[in-house]
Amino acid sequence: MAKKTANAKFMAPVTPNEKLAAIVGNKPLPRTQIVKKIWDYIKKNGLQDKKNKRMINTDEKLAAVFGGKKQVSMFEVAKAIKKHTKES
């Protein structure tokens, strides 16, 4: 049985722009690590909505990444990462 490997493009490091770097740092990271760091930031700052856990209440840094929205769905995170990174 062949060992399953991760999609190389998905694991390739990408460079965050200045808005995203304010949350995850400015070093190139794989998208998976960027998602993890965003969630770490959300949890550390208590930004997950208490009633609807799928929603994120943005603070100033997150609002910059999500186009100024006050609240975003957790499903919008990946879309925002794509918009605020460039391939290294």
Task: Give your account of this protein's structure.
This protein has 88 residues and is of the alpha+beta class. The protein has one domain (13-87): SWIB/MDM2 domain (MDM2), CATH 1.10.245.10. The protein contains 5 helices and 5 strands. It has helices at 8-11, 18-24, 31-44, 60-65, 77-83, and strands at residues 13-16, 29-30, 55-57, 71-73, 85-87. Strands 2-1-5 form a 3-stranded antiparallel beta sheet. The longest helix has 14 residues, at 31-44. The radius of gyration is 14 Å and the shape is globular. 16% of the residues are buried. The mean pLDDT is 91.
Offer a quick outline of the entry.
By secondary structure, the chain is α+β, with helices and mostly antiparallel strands. Helix content is 43%, strand content 17%.
Task: Please write out the topology.
Elements: H1 8-11, E1 13-16, H2 18-24, E2 29-30, H3 31-44, E3 55-57, H4 60-65, E4 71-73, H5 77-83, E5 85-87
